[in-house]
Specification:
The protein is α/β, with parallel strands linked by helices. About 50% of the residues lie in helices and about 15% in strands. It contains 10 helices and 8 strands. Helix 1 packs across helix 2 (about 55-75).
Length: about 280
């Protein structure tokens, strides 16, 4: 009997119709990739201006259309994560005022939750700035992030976070906020995570480790409680930024001879199934 084919999932990719889009998916698939978690882009990356929460529907519908095209063209399975990017707050508040900007972003998250509840998305996207901001922006960002946790708890879904560089202090704080609103920290995914598997496990946060250099080997030395990602941004103006679409399948295959295939069944199938409540099949 033939052994089942190992699924290979990239937990954080972006695709843009003005970028490589389906060519990037083709590259991922030809390298052995089978599943993508497609994360919504900031609205301006898609040429959309946000003036009210309802405007996010244009963003989300465009992401869903890209997902459908990718599945039809390359036979990969695409799961969608929708929400807001923390940089949106710094971009909007000068034009709209801080209270209105916060209101709009919270409303955008509420609309994203609707998509999750309809089965069109598997999680929300939120976070806080990875760069220094005024205290009022930091506080407002934390307020928006907390709201995303409340919505995720109500919808029974996961939240992918874009935040500052991971530290034990920061992970502890974020896990505390999740617990305060009743969201299990295991449903909180630290996107762009370093290989801090044991520290993330200590606080319950689930790391999505950037698959560059020797990060996956370091992560594996601490266990298998993580997912892998490229954070492929699909921006023709920034070629080579972050990692390319074939990185996760390529690194997985390179590491199987040393680490064995079983650990990657855990990383690419069991972990995402548990975190997102999905099925990973080929």
């Amino acid at each position: 009997m033939t052994a089942p084919t190992l699924p290979i999932l990239d937990n954080h990719m972006h695709l843009n119709p003005s970028g490589r889009c389906l060519d990037a998916v083709r590259e991922f698939a030809r390298a052995g990739g089978t599943h993508i978690v497609l994360v919504s882009l900031p609205p301006w990356s898609l040429g959309i201006e946000i003036n009210a929460p309802e405007d996010y529907r244009q963003v989300f519908d465009k992401i869903l259309k890209i997902a459908r095209r990718a599945e039809e063209a390359e036979k990969v399975k695409v799961f969608v994560v929708l929400g807001v990017h923390p940089a949106e707050l710094t971009k909007y508040y000068g034009r709209l005022g801080l209270p209105r900007a916060v209101e709009i972003m919270k409303g955008g998250l509420e609309i994203a939750r609707e998509y999750v509840e309809k089965g069109l998305a598997v999680g929300l996207k939120s976070g806080r700035p990875h760069y220094e901001v005024e205290p009022k922006i930091w506080d407002a960002s934390n307020d928006i992030m907390r709201h995303s946790f409340t919505l995720a708890k109500d919808a029974g879904c996961a939240v992918q976070l874009h935040t500052e560089s991971a530290t034990e202090e920061g992970l502890s704080e974020i896990a505390g906020v999740a617990r305060e609103v009743g969201l299990p920290p295991g449903k909180v995914i630290k996107h762009f995570a370093p290989p801090m598997v044991k520290i993330c496990e200590k606080y319950g946060i689930f790391p999505s480790v950037l698959a560059g250099e020797d990060a996956i080997e370091k992560a594996l030395s601490e266990g298998t409680r993580f997912m892998m990602e490229t954070d492929y941004i699909d921006d023709l103006k920034r070629p080579g930024s972050v990692l390319g679409p074939k990185t996760v399948p390529k690194r997985t295959k390179q590491l199987i001879p040393e680490w064995g295939e079983d650990v990657f069944w855990k990383i690419h199938k069991e972990n995402p199934e548990k975190v997102y409540g999905i099925e990973i099949n080929i």
